[in-house]
Amino acid sequence: MNIVNTPSKYSVLIVADDEELCGILKSALAQRMNVTVCAGVNKAYTLIETHCFDLMIVDLLLPDGSGIDVLTFAKRRDEFAEVLIIAGNATLESAAAAINLGAASYLIKPFPMPDLLASVDKMIASRLFHLRSLKMMRQSDNMAPVVKGHINDITSLYYFTSKLMLSLEIAEVMRITLEEVNSRVGAGFCSVGVKLLGYNEIYSMPAAGELDKGQLSQFFADHWNSAFSYFDKEKFTAGGIELYTYKGRLGGTVCLSGLKCVSYPLVVIGKTVGSMSVWISPDKEIEQSINQYLYILTSVISPVIEHVYLDLQMRFQAKTDNLTGIANHRQFFEALEREIARANRRKNSFSLVLLDIDNFKSINDTYGHQVGDGVIIDVAQRLTANIRTGDVASRYGGEEFSLILPDTAEGGALTLTDRICKDVAAAPFVSPKAAFTYTASFGLAVYDGNNPISKDVLISKADKALYQSKHNGKNRVTVSGKEADET
Question: Class of 329-479 per CATH?
Answer without folding.
Answer: alpha beta
